[in-house]
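Milestone 3.1: sequence recovery, worked example.
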Protein backbone atom coordinates (compact mmCIF):
# COMPACT_ATOMS: atom_id res chain seq x y z
CA UNK A 1 0.00 0.00 0.00
CA UNK A 2 2.85 2.37 0.85
CA UNK A 3 4.58 1.69 -2.48
CA UNK A 4 1.30 2.29 -4.30
CA UNK A 5 0.77 5.61 -2.47
CA UNK A 6 4.30 6.75 -3.32
CA UNK A 7 3.80 5.80 -6.98
CA UNK A 8 0.53 7.70 -7.09
CA UNK A 9 2.18 10.75 -5.47
CA UNK A 10 5.03 10.71 -7.98
CA UNK A 11 2.61 10.33 -10.90
CA UNK A 12 0.44 13.17 -9.59
CA UNK A 13 3.45 15.44 -9.10
CA UNK A 14 4.76 14.72 -12.61
CA UNK A 15 1.30 15.36 -14.05
CA UNK A 16 1.21 18.70 -12.21
CA UNK A 17 4.52 19.72 -13.75
CA UNK A 18 3.34 18.72 -17.23
CA UNK A 19 0.22 20.86 -16.83
CA UNK A 20 2.37 23.86 -15.88
CA UNK A 21 4.68 23.20 -18.85
CA UNK A 22 1.63 23.26 -21.17
CA UNK A 23 0.40 26.51 -19.61
CA UNK A 24 3.84 28.13 -20.11
CA UNK A 25 3.89 27.05 -23.77
CA UNK A 26 0.44 28.58 -24.30
CA UNK A 27 1.53 31.82 -22.62
CA UNK A 28 4.49 31.83 -24.99
CA UNK A 29 2.10 32.28 -27.94
CA UNK A 30 0.85 35.64 -26.61
CA UNK A 31 3.78 37.67 -28.01
CA UNK A 32 3.31 36.37 -31.56
CA UNK A 33 -0.46 36.95 -31.39
CA UNK A 34 -0.01 40.53 -30.15
CA UNK A 35 2.64 41.27 -32.79
CA UNK A 36 0.21 40.03 -35.46
CA UNK A 37 -2.53 42.22 -33.96
CA UNK A 38 -0.28 45.30 -34.03
CA UNK A 39 0.31 44.62 -37.71
CA UNK A 40 -3.45 44.77 -38.37
CA UNK A 41 -4.65 47.76 -36.36
CA UNK A 42 -3.33 50.75 -34.41
CA UNK A 43 -4.10 49.65 -30.86
CA UNK A 44 -2.36 49.86 -27.47
CA UNK A 45 -1.25 47.35 -24.82
CA UNK A 46 -3.83 48.35 -22.19
CA UNK A 47 -6.71 47.90 -24.64
CA UNK A 48 -5.42 44.43 -25.49
CA UNK A 49 -4.92 43.61 -21.82
CA UNK A 50 -8.45 44.68 -20.91
CA UNK A 51 -10.11 42.76 -23.76
CA UNK A 52 -8.00 39.72 -22.92
CA UNK A 53 -9.54 39.57 -19.44
CA UNK A 54 -13.00 40.80 -20.48
CA UNK A 55 -13.31 38.09 -23.15
CA UNK A 56 -12.07 35.43 -20.74
CA UNK A 57 -14.58 36.34 -18.02
CA UNK A 58 -17.88 35.13 -19.63
CA UNK A 59 -16.23 31.85 -20.64
CA UNK A 60 -14.87 31.35 -17.12
CA UNK A 61 -18.18 32.22 -15.48
CA UNK A 62 -20.15 29.86 -17.75
CA UNK A 63 -17.70 26.99 -17.24
CA UNK A 64 -17.61 27.60 -13.49
CA UNK A 65 -21.42 27.66 -13.22
CA UNK A 66 -21.73 24.51 -15.33
CA UNK A 67 -19.10 22.71 -13.22
CA UNK A 68 -19.96 23.91 -9.72
CA UNK A 69 -23.40 25.51 -9.88
CA UNK A 70 -24.31 27.55 -6.81
CA UNK A 71 -21.19 26.21 -5.07
CA UNK A 72 -19.09 28.64 -7.09
CA UNK A 73 -20.18 31.40 -4.68
CA UNK A 74 -19.18 29.47 -1.57
CA UNK A 75 -15.87 31.08 -0.70
CA UNK A 76 -14.44 31.78 2.71
CA UNK A 77 -13.83 35.45 3.44
CA UNK A 78 -10.08 34.94 3.82
CA UNK A 79 -9.88 33.05 0.54
CA UNK A 80 -12.03 35.66 -1.20
CA UNK A 81 -9.38 38.22 -0.27
CA UNK A 82 -6.75 35.99 -1.91
CA UNK A 83 -8.86 35.68 -5.08
CA UNK A 84 -9.35 39.46 -5.21
CA UNK A 85 -5.61 39.89 -4.64
CA UNK A 86 -4.92 37.50 -7.52
CA UNK A 87 -7.07 39.69 -9.79
CA UNK A 88 -5.46 42.90 -8.57
CA UNK A 89 -1.99 41.43 -9.20
CA UNK A 90 -3.07 40.37 -12.68
CA UNK A 91 -3.97 44.01 -13.39
CA UNK A 92 -0.74 45.28 -11.77
CA UNK A 93 1.35 42.77 -13.72
CA UNK A 94 -0.05 43.87 -17.07
CA UNK A 95 0.00 47.64 -16.36
CA UNK A 96 3.60 47.55 -15.07
CA UNK A 97 4.74 45.22 -17.85
CA UNK A 98 3.29 47.36 -20.62
CA UNK A 99 4.69 50.48 -18.95
CA UNK A 100 8.14 48.91 -18.70
CA UNK A 101 8.08 48.04 -22.40
CA UNK A 102 7.35 51.69 -23.24
CA UNK A 103 10.36 52.85 -21.21
CA UNK A 104 13.05 50.22 -21.80
CA UNK A 105 11.74 48.00 -24.61
CA UNK A 106 10.52 44.42 -24.72
CA UNK A 107 13.86 42.69 -24.11
CA UNK A 108 14.77 44.31 -20.79
CA UNK A 109 11.14 44.25 -19.58
CA UNK A 110 10.87 40.50 -20.24
CA UNK A 111 14.29 39.80 -18.75
CA UNK A 112 13.66 41.63 -15.46
CA UNK A 113 10.09 40.36 -15.07
CA UNK A 114 10.62 36.69 -15.83
CA UNK A 115 14.01 36.36 -14.14
CA UNK A 116 13.21 38.20 -10.93
CA UNK A 117 9.75 36.64 -10.40
CA UNK A 118 11.01 33.08 -9.61
CA UNK A 119 13.53 34.53 -7.14
CA UNK A 120 10.75 36.45 -5.35
CA UNK A 121 8.56 33.32 -5.34
CA UNK A 122 11.39 31.15 -4.01
CA UNK A 123 12.24 33.55 -1.17
CA UNK A 124 8.63 34.14 -0.14
CA UNK A 125 7.86 30.39 -0.35
CA UNK A 126 10.59 29.68 2.17
CA UNK A 127 8.68 31.85 4.63
CA UNK A 128 5.05 31.24 3.64
CA UNK A 129 5.00 27.55 2.69
CA UNK A 130 8.22 26.31 4.36
CA UNK A 131 9.42 25.07 0.98
CA UNK A 132 12.98 23.70 0.97
CA UNK A 133 15.78 24.34 -1.50
CA UNK A 134 17.52 21.23 -2.81
CA UNK A 135 20.83 21.36 -4.73
CA UNK A 136 19.02 20.36 -7.94
CA UNK A 137 16.43 23.10 -7.42
CA UNK A 138 19.18 25.71 -6.99
CA UNK A 139 20.98 24.50 -10.14
CA UNK A 140 17.68 24.46 -12.07
CA UNK A 141 16.91 28.03 -10.96
CA UNK A 142 20.38 29.15 -12.06
CA UNK A 143 20.04 27.42 -15.44
CA UNK A 144 16.59 28.97 -15.93
CA UNK A 145 17.70 32.52 -15.10
CA UNK A 146 20.78 32.39 -17.35
CA UNK A 147 18.80 30.66 -20.10
CA UNK A 148 16.09 33.32 -20.01
CA UNK A 149 18.70 36.09 -20.23
CA UNK A 150 20.31 34.44 -23.26
CA UNK A 151 16.93 33.87 -24.98
CA UNK A 152 15.94 37.51 -24.52
CA UNK A 153 19.33 38.70 -25.85
CA UNK A 154 19.27 42.12 -24.17
CA UNK A 155 20.90 44.99 -26.03
CA UNK A 156 21.47 48.40 -24.37
CA UNK A 157 20.36 50.29 -27.46
CA UNK A 158 16.84 48.88 -27.20
CA UNK A 159 15.97 51.69 -24.79
CA UNK A 160 14.21 54.42 -26.71
CA UNK A 161 15.47 57.98 -26.70
CA UNK A 162 12.48 59.13 -24.66
CA UNK A 163 12.67 56.15 -22.32
CA UNK A 164 13.50 56.46 -18.64
CA UNK A 165 15.68 53.46 -17.81
CA UNK A 166 15.28 53.75 -14.03
CA UNK A 167 11.50 54.05 -14.28
CA UNK A 168 11.38 51.18 -16.77
CA UNK A 169 13.34 48.82 -14.52
CA UNK A 170 11.21 49.88 -11.53
CA UNK A 171 8.03 49.08 -13.49
CA UNK A 172 9.49 45.72 -14.55
CA UNK A 173 10.24 44.95 -10.89
CA UNK A 174 6.61 45.82 -10.10
CA UNK A 175 5.55 43.45 -12.87
CA UNK A 176 7.78 40.71 -11.45
CA UNK A 177 6.26 41.24 -8.02
CA UNK A 178 2.73 40.94 -9.46
CA UNK A 179 3.73 37.80 -11.37
CA UNK A 180 5.19 36.28 -8.20
CA UNK A 181 2.13 37.07 -6.05
CA UNK A 182 -0.12 35.48 -8.69
CA UNK A 183 1.91 32.26 -8.37
CA UNK A 184 1.77 32.37 -4.56
CA UNK A 185 -1.97 33.10 -4.43
CA UNK A 186 -2.57 30.28 -6.92
CA UNK A 187 -0.55 27.90 -4.73
CA UNK A 188 -2.47 28.89 -1.61
CA UNK A 189 -5.88 28.47 -3.28
CA UNK A 190 -5.13 25.43 -5.43
CA UNK A 191 -5.82 22.78 -2.81
CA UNK A 192 -9.08 24.29 -1.54
CA UNK A 193 -10.96 25.47 -4.62
CA UNK A 194 -11.65 24.45 -8.19
CA UNK A 195 -9.36 26.42 -10.56
CA UNK A 196 -12.38 27.92 -12.36
CA UNK A 197 -13.65 29.37 -9.08
CA UNK A 198 -10.45 31.29 -8.31
CA UNK A 199 -10.00 32.43 -11.90
CA UNK A 200 -13.57 33.69 -12.36
CA UNK A 201 -13.41 35.92 -9.28
CA UNK A 202 -9.78 36.92 -9.86
CA UNK A 203 -10.09 37.78 -13.54
CA UNK A 204 -13.33 39.68 -12.94
CA UNK A 205 -11.48 41.82 -10.42
CA UNK A 206 -8.58 42.32 -12.83
CA UNK A 207 -10.87 43.43 -15.67
CA UNK A 208 -12.61 45.97 -13.43
CA UNK A 209 -9.27 47.37 -12.26
CA UNK A 210 -7.85 47.54 -15.81
CA UNK A 211 -10.87 49.27 -17.35
CA UNK A 212 -10.12 52.83 -16.06
CA UNK A 213 -6.47 52.51 -17.13
CA UNK A 214 -7.55 51.39 -20.60
CA UNK A 215 -10.10 54.22 -20.88
CA UNK A 216 -7.53 56.78 -19.75
CA UNK A 217 -4.99 55.59 -22.33
CA UNK A 218 -7.63 55.50 -25.09
CA UNK A 219 -9.59 52.25 -25.27
CA UNK A 220 -9.48 50.94 -28.85
CA UNK A 221 -12.72 49.16 -29.76
CA UNK A 222 -12.50 49.07 -33.57
CA UNK A 223 -10.84 45.93 -34.91
CA UNK A 224 -11.20 44.00 -38.19
CA UNK A 225 -12.71 40.51 -38.07
CA UNK A 226 -9.31 38.82 -37.92
CA UNK A 227 -8.31 41.24 -35.14
CA UNK A 228 -11.30 40.17 -33.03
CA UNK A 229 -10.38 36.56 -33.79
CA UNK A 230 -6.91 37.16 -32.36
CA UNK A 231 -8.41 38.85 -29.28
CA UNK A 232 -10.79 35.90 -28.90
CA UNK A 233 -7.81 33.54 -29.06
CA UNK A 234 -5.94 35.62 -26.45
CA UNK A 235 -8.93 35.56 -24.10
CA UNK A 236 -9.73 31.85 -24.42
CA UNK A 237 -6.53 29.93 -25.07
CA UNK A 238 -3.48 31.55 -23.36
CA UNK A 239 -5.77 33.01 -20.69
CA UNK A 240 -8.69 30.70 -19.79
CA UNK A 241 -7.14 27.39 -20.83
CA UNK A 242 -3.58 28.22 -19.78
CA UNK A 243 -4.54 29.49 -16.32
CA UNK A 244 -6.87 26.54 -15.69
CA UNK A 245 -3.95 24.23 -16.55
CA UNK A 246 -1.64 26.31 -14.34
CA UNK A 247 -3.90 26.25 -11.28
CA UNK A 248 -4.62 22.55 -11.79
CA UNK A 249 -0.88 21.85 -11.89
CA UNK A 250 -0.32 23.99 -8.79
CA UNK A 251 -2.34 21.45 -6.79
CA UNK A 252 0.47 18.95 -7.15
CA UNK A 253 3.68 20.99 -7.05
CA UNK A 254 5.39 23.82 -5.16
CA UNK A 255 5.19 27.53 -6.01
CA UNK A 256 8.98 27.72 -6.53
CA UNK A 257 9.01 24.77 -8.92
CA UNK A 258 6.04 26.14 -10.85
CA UNK A 259 7.56 29.63 -11.21
CA UNK A 260 10.79 28.17 -12.64
CA UNK A 261 8.86 25.94 -15.05
CA UNK A 262 6.93 28.93 -16.45
CA UNK A 263 10.25 30.29 -17.75
CA UNK A 264 9.52 28.07 -20.77
CA UNK A 265 7.32 30.98 -21.85
CA UNK A 266 10.16 33.16 -23.28
CA UNK A 267 11.67 30.10 -25.00
CA UNK A 268 8.34 29.42 -26.72
CA UNK A 269 8.01 33.09 -27.69
CA UNK A 270 11.52 33.13 -29.15
CA UNK A 271 10.97 29.96 -31.19
CA UNK A 272 7.61 31.17 -32.54
CA UNK A 273 9.08 34.58 -33.46
CA UNK A 274 11.83 32.77 -35.36
CA UNK A 275 9.32 30.48 -37.07
CA UNK A 276 6.65 33.03 -38.06
CA UNK A 277 8.54 36.33 -38.26
CA UNK A 278 12.00 35.05 -39.20
CA UNK A 279 13.58 36.72 -36.17
CA UNK A 280 17.12 35.43 -35.70
CA UNK A 281 17.60 33.02 -32.83
CA UNK A 282 21.41 33.10 -32.84
CA UNK A 283 23.97 31.06 -30.93
CA UNK A 284 23.17 32.54 -27.53
CA UNK A 285 19.44 32.07 -28.09
CA UNK A 286 20.00 28.39 -28.83
CA UNK A 287 22.27 28.07 -25.79
CA UNK A 288 19.62 29.76 -23.63
CA UNK A 289 16.98 27.38 -24.93
CA UNK A 290 19.16 24.39 -24.08
CA UNK A 291 19.68 25.72 -20.54
CA UNK A 292 15.93 26.20 -20.08
CA UNK A 293 15.21 22.68 -21.28
CA UNK A 294 17.97 21.42 -18.97
CA UNK A 295 16.36 23.27 -16.05
CA UNK A 296 13.00 21.62 -16.73
CA UNK A 297 14.62 18.15 -16.96
CA UNK A 298 16.36 18.78 -13.63
CA UNK A 299 13.03 19.74 -12.08
CA UNK A 300 11.45 16.51 -13.28
CA UNK A 301 14.43 14.53 -11.90
CA UNK A 302 14.19 16.41 -8.61
CA UNK A 303 10.48 15.66 -8.44
CA UNK A 304 10.95 11.97 -9.20
CA UNK A 305 13.73 11.60 -6.62
CA UNK A 306 11.68 13.37 -3.96
CA UNK A 307 8.75 10.99 -4.47
CA UNK A 308 10.76 7.77 -4.82
Amino acid sequence: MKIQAVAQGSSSSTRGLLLIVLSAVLWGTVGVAIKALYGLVDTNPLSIGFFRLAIALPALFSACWYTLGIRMFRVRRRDLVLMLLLGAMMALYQVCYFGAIAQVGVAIAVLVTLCIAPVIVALLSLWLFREKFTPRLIVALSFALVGTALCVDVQPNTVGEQGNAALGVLLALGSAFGYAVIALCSRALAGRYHPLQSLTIGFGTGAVILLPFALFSGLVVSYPAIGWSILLYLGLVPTVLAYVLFLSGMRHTTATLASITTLLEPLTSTLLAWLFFKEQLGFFGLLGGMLLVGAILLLFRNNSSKNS
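DSSP finds eleven helices and no strands in the chain. Residues 2-306 form one domain.
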